[in-house]
Write a structure and sequence with these properties.
single chain, alpha/beta, Rossmann fold, Alpha-Beta Plaits, 5-stranded parallel beta sheet, two-stranded antiparallel sheet, 7 helices, binds flavin mononucleotide, binds iron/sulfur cluster
């Protein structure tokens, strides 16, 4: 049995995980979310991890998952991260966590994907995202091929600036992450469909008696609620009004439930 664990907000990481899954037999693709029970030790021939970069680090829930899991057996371990511009030392940090468990990673992959970050700057427009996905395609093909053949892929050397961003900016990002959802609000176009609550990996949104979303202050900042809302009714402060919404074109919203 092979296993791939992924974390996603807008579907990029899920897409990469699914592409790898198509090429290797007998594989289970598992979403890391708050309801995931990972108390049982993990045993797999091929064991993979796919996740997005947040502030030159890992999504907090994903990092906690990596720190807590017990790996009983894994013959070949790979990790693939994806990001909009730069990933800093995130793979070095990931490697360190697994090394503490006595696990060596055989293959490290990186893919530049459309950005879903809207707090500063903007998420990729539809046109820009299409171009980025076209460029990403052969990169993903190459990763998929190498992983299916259990090839080694060394980690790309990280410059001092990348290490600095991961060491300095990431802790600042994490320090206020849970309560950062106080910036979210919904507009009058909200129709109470509840999709925002269903896509939230942290179960951080409940609908009140008027079927309006209420954020619970255990946010991961994945922006799934913002991007998947079919009414574009969610904003993250007034700054995001008019900003792009991005979800991977090959992912259906129901795949995140
Ligand atoms: C909170 C947050 C922080 C991010 N930080 C970075 C970053 O430091 N560097 C970067 O290149 N992209 C950054 N991004 C963009 C995502 O890494 C990128 O869009 C990724 O492909 C999203 O994957 P997903 O669709 O699986 O969630 C960030 C996105 C979010 C939501
Ligand atoms: S997904 Fe959008 S429209 Fe649906 S309940 Fe949430 S905010 Fe309202
Ligand atoms: S509230 Fe929104 S941004 Fe926060 S974890 Fe849930 S889906 Fe992600």
């Amino acid at each position: 049995m092979n296993k791939i664990f992924y974390f996603t907000g807008s579907g990029n990481s899920l897409t990469i995980a699914k592409r790898i899954d198509e090429k290797i037999e007998d594989c289970e693709v598992i979403q890391v979310k708050s309801s995931l029970d990972f108390s049982k030790p993990i045993a797999a021939e091929i064991l993979g991890f796919v996740f997005p970069v947040y502030a030159w680090g890992m999504p907090v829930m994903f990092k906690e998952f990596i720190q807590k899991i017990k790996i009983e057996k894994a013959d070949y371990v790979f990790v693939v991260t994806n990001y909009g511009g730069s990933c800093g030392n995130v793979l070095g940090i990931f490697r360190k966590i697994l090394r503490k468990k006595g696990i060596e990673i055989a293959a490290f992959g990186e893919v530049v994907m459309p950005s879903n970050y809207v707090v500063m700057g903007d998420a990729s427009s539809q046109h820009k995202a299409a171009n980025i996905l076209q460029i990403a395609e052969p990169v993903i093909d190459d990763l998929v091929q190498k992983i299916s053949e259990k090839q080694a892929m060394p980690m790309i050397k990280v410059k001092f600036s990348g290490k600095f961003l991961s060491a300095v900016v990431y802790p600042l990002f994490v320090s206020n992450i849970r309560k950062s959802d106080k910036n979210f609000f919904f507009t009058e176009t909200c129709n109470g469909c509840g999709i925002c609550a269903k896509v939230c990996p942290a179960e951080n949104i409940v609908l009140n008696e008027k079927k309006q979303p209420v954020w619970q202050h255990r946010c991961e900042q994945c922006h799934a609620c913002f991007h998947w809302c079919p009414q574009r009714a969610i904003e993250f402060s007034k700054k995001t009004v008019q900003k792009n919404r991005y979800t991977h074109p090959n992912v259906k919203v129901s795949e995140l439930f």
